[in-house]
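Kindly go through the following sequence and its backbone structure tokens. Advise at your convenience whether the structure tokens fit the sequence:

___
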Amino acid sequence: MMGKVIVVTSGKGGVGKTTVTANLGVALALTGKRVLMIDTDTGLRNLDVLLGFEDRALYDVIDVLEENASTEDAFIEHDVYKSLYMLPASQTRDKEELELESFKNFCDEQKKRFDYILIDCPAGIEYGFKCALYPADEAIIVSVPDKGAIRDADRVAGIIEAEYPGVKETHLLVNRLIPELADNGKTAGAEETLVTVSVKLIGVVPEDPRVLINAYDSRLCVTDRHSLAGKAIKNIARRINGEEVKLLKLKKIRLFKKKYR
């Protein structure tokens, strides 16, 4: 059975897309799946940093496509999760050097080896976005619950539907939700975001200081049993695997003692 290519994208930068990609890759590997993560953010790669691979990134995706490096040399295997691999983006090449057809053919070939290929897409809708979407079977749009991010997420959903028929399913992931603020009408909630973006909801990840705490120690929140964000992303991984998993109950989470007026 062939694997799936899932692109993790967003309209707006700073919504936690790369953090979601890194944690989701580990979460899927924890379920026993073979996972390849590909960073396509040419010039501004960060996925390797989150995974602690920055000193091991000798080759990049363009090197592989141009046959200057083999996959055996370029793929970075995780030290702990042996079914998890990563292919970095280039920091020195131009975005246009990531050629569309070559990249799609490469991803199609890797679907024979991996259950999931996660593509970390650059923010925005320029050429890097086009490259990341071109080989994708499914898309996860990450948005935080603010008006600008929601509008941009809706725009991305519309582009995917209109221009990428190969993407058979598109999902929404609401990230960094603070239930107290959403309940008080100070930010959008998951339901309001879902109504605007109008694609299937795959999960809601709460704001969680343990994400930053773990990242500072080069760890991911899905490996922290006390992290609510980690639990939410693990549940998303289970949904990707086809399980029916209820959303976390977040109403009792209070990150602020002060009431907002």
